[in-house]
Task: inverse folding
């Protein structure tokens, strides 16, 4: 592949610096390897060729500076020591000295040698050690010990290298038992860092569970304990069968190809599959978009399925290693768990290799026994293998077997271990075998920033969130939901709805409707009543309705509540739907789930429950609701010692909608702030923490002015605050009463004190500026958002009940977006009444309730077209 004789001849012929020769040789060699990758040559040959290429250069560069020195050796360590180099992999070197005294005389040629490597484009990491240094550092640091275990002599005296290997062998330091314990703890910590999930949106090819590091971990243990050099030795030692070995090697090769392509694409070291690169890699690997499945989603699904399979093999091998290394194959006497199962060392196993073939339903019984015996730590490796070998027994006849159906439903009805065992069933492939539709969502990602897990992992997270509601120790997380959850008559129904709510994603069509049919069919097959079957199906069909209503509609509008209540039909449906929606929203993106979103759903739930209890044929009229709100607010203000006549005079200039869109507590806070502020101190800017919504309410009351919404949103954005809701009211006296519900970027409310004072001071200063400088937010768009092509889309509808127009905006989230929208409103003489702000991954889906200057809806198509053009111009794609 490489012409080493030409390299040697060029070096012999030159009388000047060898830098250009080495650099050109590396460039040509890298191009040859890259061409081999494009021609789909075996990846094992290519990573070995890259190491061989670098070996040749280092050998010759070393000899230029040290000739035949016997005082030092050049040693490859780490991945390079294994002879595996990707295009931008670390080139880790150790300069091994026979004694420390020689360092001074070698210091100058060492410096020249390392400078040469940098000059020719090799980024190397290096250490200089004597054998005594190696012993000391390897004894103290298992990472050093691991690197030396994989070391490989490049050039120099072989005797010196052998002495180092002998001095750092398991017989001298890190015996195989201590080594395994340390490496096992290292892997556990690494997995926990990634939340024990292979399914994060931007996975690390190397470090994520099921990644290359897990394979390396297996290799290290095999090498340390068995002095074996290849993973094939796992077969000869009985730890893997031939099929599992092939799966392991094919998985490694697949991840290597992705890593090679990633390094080539970026031109630098890096192992994270960022959004920036996923689409390009998907195209490079030959995927095309099709109905319901983007190319990038197909590419990532295979990646996730591969790492899940590798994670399962890792689990099997680590258990074998624990028995062979830690227990030295000494097992406790078996503890019986019925005729078919027993446990050893708290791991469950079959009593006979033919258990599953004789009694196929034992494939489900195993998980029920694990639930019923929480002291058990898992499944023995040999039984995991038997599960996989017999998975084909789960066929249509198996699913129709009343014994299998009863076992599955019993698993869902257990008081403990439901999430844990369903996760285990998913990991071993049993869940997708029993519910065939589940197979389609295993490892399926959604290319957005909203869903942070694959669909199967998200589904199990929803189930986990529901299960947390049953744990008394976690009641403080969501006390209202926990209390409501206890009242559900059949909790297994909501677990079934969780399992099926996203099961039809990726099939094309409406996944809620398709999933409803799957759910109802499953329930009927399992002999649930028609009522229960239809309830589960209804939950699947409507699992998005509650969150969409809360985010997109004005839930202070009695008509909205009435329509939502009519869809729910009764309080039992509402209770189930509310809890499923909370669990689903929380599991979609835990970091974006906050008290504001929770309060929106809770407010919608409570308002709907009141409507259902009142009776669907007896809806609450707007006038009655306004009357009740005013009455409760006056009572609160009277208790605080305020004059009712003064309050009523102020209210005369307020619109009726104000009393529909604010709670009595919120109105009380705002009115108290207004009537206690002297006219000369206007405009009023104040901040209140709103316990009921988990955010902070920024209040403005002062003279109405053009551009007010744009100025306020610009200033709040510059302060690093996220706006989640706003209410704008122009009074008949020429004032504006505006409230903005804001949160810090981490979702927490504003801390009163210094931070609140900073916000108030900044807002007042910005609002009193007289110049006409353009409003700009000087913050960068998040890196991940740049990977998405989100066209700006605007939809208009009319709200005749409130005599206003509704504008729905879908666009790429970016700093200053609301400011730009506000400036477009000002340019088009638009008044804003209310804004609902929703960020869904990299997209915003904001709802604006607007009128013209005369407080009339926008009915003229030219006026609507002008507004749409103004907004889209300010929000270029």
Result:
């Amino acid at each position: 592949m490489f012409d080493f004789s030409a390299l040697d001849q060029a070096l012999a012929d030159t009388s000047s610096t060898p830098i250009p020769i080495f650099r050109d040789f590396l460039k040509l060699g890298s191009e040859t390897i890259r061409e081999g990758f494009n021609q789909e040559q075996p990846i094992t040959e290519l990573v070995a060729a890259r190491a061989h290429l670098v070996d040749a250069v280092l050998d010759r560069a070393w000899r230029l500076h040290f000739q035949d020195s016997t005082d030092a050796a050049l040693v490859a360590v780490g991945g390079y020591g294994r002879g595996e180099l990707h295009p931008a992999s670390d080139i880790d070197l150790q300069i091994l000295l026979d004694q420390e005294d020689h360092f001074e005389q070698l210091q100058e040629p060492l410096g020249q040698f390392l400078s040469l490597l940098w000059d020719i484009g090799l980024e190397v990491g290096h250490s200089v050690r004597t054998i005594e240094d190696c012993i000391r550092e390897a004894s103290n640091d298992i990472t050093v010990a691991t690197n030396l275990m994989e070391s490989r002599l490049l050039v120099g005296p072989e005797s010196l290298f052998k002495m180092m290997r002998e001095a750092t062998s398991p017989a001298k330091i890190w015996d195989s038992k201590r080594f395994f314990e340390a490496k096992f703890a290292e892997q556990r910590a690494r997995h926990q860092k990634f939340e024990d999930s292979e399914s994060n949106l931007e996975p690390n090819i190397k470090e994520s569970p099921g990644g290359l590091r897990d394979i390396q971990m297996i290799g290290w243990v095999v090498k340390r304990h068995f002095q074996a050099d290849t993973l094939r030795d796992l077969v000869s030692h009985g730890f893997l069968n031939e099929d599992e070995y092939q799966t392991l090697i094919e998985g490694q090769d697949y991840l290597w190809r992705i890593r090679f392509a990633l390094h080539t694409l970026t031109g630098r070291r890096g192992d994270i599959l960022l959004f920036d690169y996923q689409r390009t890699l998907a195209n490079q690997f030959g995927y095309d978009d099709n109905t319901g499945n983007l190319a990038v989603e197909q590419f990532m699904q295979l990646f996730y399925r591969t790492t899940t399979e590798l994670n399962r093999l890792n689990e099997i091998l680590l258990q074998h290693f624990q028995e062979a290394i830690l227990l030295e194959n000494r097992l406790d006497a078996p503890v019986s768990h019925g005729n078919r199962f027993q446990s050893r060392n708290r791991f469950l196993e079959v009593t006979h290799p033919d258990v599953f073939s004789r009694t196929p339903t034992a494939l489900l019984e195993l998980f029920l026994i694990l639930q019923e015996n929480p002291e058990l730590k898992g499944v023995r490796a040999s039984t995991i293998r038997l599960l996989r070998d017999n998975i084909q027994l789960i066929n249509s006849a198996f699913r129709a077997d009343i014994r299998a159906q009863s076992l599955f439903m019993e698993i869902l009805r257990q008081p403990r271990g439901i999430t844990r065992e369903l996760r285990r069933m998913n990991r071993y492939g049993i869940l997708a075998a029993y519910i065939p539709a589940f197979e389609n969502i295993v490892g399926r990602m959604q290319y957005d920033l909203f869903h942070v897990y694959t669909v199967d992992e998200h589904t199990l997270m929803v189930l986990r969130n529901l299960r947390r509601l049953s744990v008394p120790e976690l009641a403080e997380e969501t006390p209202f939901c926990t209390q409501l959850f206890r009242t559900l008559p059949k909790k297994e129904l909501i677990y079934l709805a969780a399992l099926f709510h996203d099961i039809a994603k990726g099939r094309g069509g409406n996944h809620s409707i398709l999933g409803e049919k799957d759910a109802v069919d499953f329930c009927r097959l399992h002999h649930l009543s028609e009522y229960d079957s239809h309830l589960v199906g209804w939950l699947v069909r409507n699992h998005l309705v509650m969150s969409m209503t809360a985010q997109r509609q004005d839930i202070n509008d009695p008509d909205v509540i009435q329509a939502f209540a009519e869809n729910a039909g009764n309080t039992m449906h509402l209770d189930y739907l509310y809890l499923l929606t909370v669990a689903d929203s929380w599991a979609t993106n835990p970091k974006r789930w906050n008290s504001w979103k929770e309060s929106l759903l809770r407010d919608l739930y409570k308002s709907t429950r009141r409507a259902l209890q009142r009776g669907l044929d007896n809806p609450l009229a707007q006038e009655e609701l306004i009357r009740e709100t005013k009455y409760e607010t006056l009572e609160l203000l009277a208790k605080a010692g305020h004059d009712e006549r003064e309050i009523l005079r102020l209210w005369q200039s307020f619109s009726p909608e104000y009393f529909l869109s604010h709670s009595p507590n919120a109105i009380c806070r705002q009115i108290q702030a207004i009537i206690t502020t002297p006219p000369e101190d206007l405009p009023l800017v104040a901040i209140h923490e709103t316990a009921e919504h988990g955010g902070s309410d920024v209040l403005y009351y002062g003279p109405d002015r053009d551009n007010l919404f744009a100025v306020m949103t610009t200033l709040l954005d510059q302060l690093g605050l996220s706006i989640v809701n706003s209410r704008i009211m122009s009074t008949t006296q020429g004032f504006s009463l505006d409230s903005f519900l804001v949160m810090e970027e981490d979702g927490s409310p504003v801390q009163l004190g210094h931070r609140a004072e900073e916000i108030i001071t900044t807002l007042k200063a910005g609002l009193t500026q007289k110049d006409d400088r353009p409003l700009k937010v000087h913050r960068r768009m998040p890196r991940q958002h740049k990977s998405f092509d989100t066209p700006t889309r605007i939809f208009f509808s009319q709200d005749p009940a409130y005599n206003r127009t509704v504008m729905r905006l879908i666009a790429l989230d970016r700093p200053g977006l609301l400011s730009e929208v506000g400036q477009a409103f000002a340019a088009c003489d638009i008044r804003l009444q209310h804004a609902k702000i929703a960020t869904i991954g990299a997209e915003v889906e904001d709802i604006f309730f607007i009128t013209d200057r005369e407080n009339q809806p926008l009915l003229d198509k030219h006026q609507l077209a002008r507004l749409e053009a103004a907004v889209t111009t300010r929000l270029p794609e």
